[in-house]
Amino acid sequence: MSGSAAGPRRPLAVYIHIPFCIRKCAYCDFLSFPPAPRAGEQEERMRRYFDALLAEAAAAEEELRAYEVTSIYFGGGTPSLAPVSGIAACLDAVRAGFPVAEDAEISLECNPATADAAKLKKLRDAGVNRLSIGVQSFHDTELKLLGRVHTAADALRAYEEARNAGFDNINLDLMAALPGQTADSLLDTVGRAIRLGPEHLSLYSLIIEPGTPFYERYAGQVPDPHYDRKRKRPSAPDPDTPALPDEDEEREMLHAARALLAEHGYEQYEISNYARQGGRPVTGYRCVQNLAYWMRQDYLGLGLGAASLLDDTRLTNTRDPGRYAEAGGNARGGLLSCIREETRRLSPQERMEEFMFLGLRLTEGVAEADFRRCFGRDIDEVYGETLRRHTAADLIVRKNGRVRLTDRGQDLANTVMADFMF
Q: What is the pLDDT of residues 61-76, one digit of tens each?
C-alpha cells in the first residue's frame, strides 16, 4: 500500500506485549506472570491471549489508515517464551491490517533460557530481524541475585545460535549498579559483551521499584527509588544481601563503561544506549522503536497493559488478564472500548513536558526549531529560566540550535528532567 490521497503516510511504531515469563525477576515491576502452573493450561492461556491480540490488531485497523509501520517490537514478559506460531500470526495480522515499510525493524526480546537454535531460526524465518537478548550480567553470582533463570553460558550460547540463525542486528541488555557490583565486575561484563560484537548495547542502571522483592530488601538504602539516586549503605550489611553501590560508585562504573564502549566504536546516542556504525542509512543500528518513543512519534500498543500515543492522545489497555482475554471474543466494533482503560488527550503543557524530558535522553538533545514548530512558541519563552539555571550549573549546553545534557547532566538526568515539569 502506498501513501493516501491526503499525502504521505505518517510513521508508526507498533509495540506488542507478551506478558508471559517463567518467573519474575527480583527487580522486575513489569506486567508479567507465568502462563499457568500446568503445561496444558499454559497452552490454552497463551492461545486465548494471542486470539485477543489478533482481534485487537484487526479492530485497530480503522483508526490507523493514515500510517505506515516503521517498526514492530515484541516486549514483555518474555516474548521468546511464546510459540513462534503466535509471533508469526501477530506479524501477519499487522501486515494485513496496516501498510508496513519494506525495511521495517522487527524486534523481539529474548531470554537466553527460553530460545534454542531451532526456535531462533523459526523466528528469523517469520520476519523478526532484530533480537534483544536480556543478558544483564556475565557473572552467575549477579544473575542469581537478580533472580534470572539463565546463566552466563546460556547467554553466550543464545548469542551464537542467534548469529547462526541469520540475525545480523542484535542488542545485548546489560545492567549496572547491581548489589555488590564493582566497576571492575561491570567492566568485565561490558568487555565480554563487546568481544561478542553485537550491533547494539543497552546499559541500564538498576532502579529499585516498589512492589518488588528488591524493594523489600533494599528500600532502606534508597529513600526515593524514582528520583533520588543517592544511596545509603546499611551500617551492618547482611552477607546474603550485598549493599548497593553508592552514588559515587555508580557514577564511576558508568563513566568507565561509557569510555570502554566508545573506545571500541559504540556510539552513545541515548543515556543508556549505544550503537555501532553501519546499518540503516539514517538511524544506523540505533533502535528505531525506542527512537520513536524518545522523539514522540506516534505508536500503537497492542496487548495487556499496552500504551499508545496517537495524535497526542494517550491510550492505555487494561491490565486485567481475564478482561483482556474475554474482549478477544467480542465483535470488532466494541473490542477497543472493552480493553482500553484510559483515553486522554494531552494538554499543550503535557506535550511540552514530554518533548523535553524524552528528547533530552538523546545525546543530541532537542532542536529549538522543532520546539517552535510543534508548539508555536520559542523555547526560552517557556523554559528560559530553567535553561539558564542548568546551563550555568554545567548540566545543559546550548549549541547550534540544540539543547542537550552535558556529561554531568547525564549523571543527574532525573533531577534535571524533573525541572521541565510544570
A: 877 888 999 999 999 9
Q: Which three cell numbers stand for residue 29?
A: 515491576
Q: Which residue intervals of 147-208 are DSSP H helices? A: 152-164, 183-196
Q: If phi over 0 gives left and psi between -120 and 50 gives alpha, with beta otherwise, what is residue 42?
A: alpha
Least confident residue range of 120-124, 231-235, 281-285:
231-235
Give the model's pLDDT for residue 308: 97
Whether 317 and 301 have beta carbons less than 8 Å apart is answered as yes
Domains by residue range for the chain, with CATH: 10-294 (3.20.20.70), 350-418 (1.10.10.10)
Distance in angstroms (rounded) separating the CA atoms of residues 191 and 257: 9
Q: How far is Cα 45 from Cα 236, in angstroms, rounded to an integer?
A: 46
- Residue 242: DSSP 8-state: P
Give the C-alpha separation, 355 to 332, whole Å. 34
Q: Which residue type occupies 420?
A: F
User: Both ends of the chain: CA-CA distance in Å?
Assistant: 42
DSSP H stretches of helix in 75-149: 84-97, 117-126, 140-146
| Cα torsion 354, 340, 325, 97: sign | negative
Q: At what angle do helices 368-375 and 379-392 cross, to 10 degrees?
A: 150
- CA contacts within 13 A on the Cβ side of 67: 23
Instruction: Count CB atoms within 10 A of the CB of residue 78.
Output: 25
Whether residue 187 contacts residue 253, with contact meaning beta carbons closer than 8 Å, is answered with yes
Cβ atoms of 60 and 302 closer than 8 Å: yes
Q: State the DSSP H helix or E strand holding residue 308, giving kind and residue range, or none if neither.
A: strand 307-310
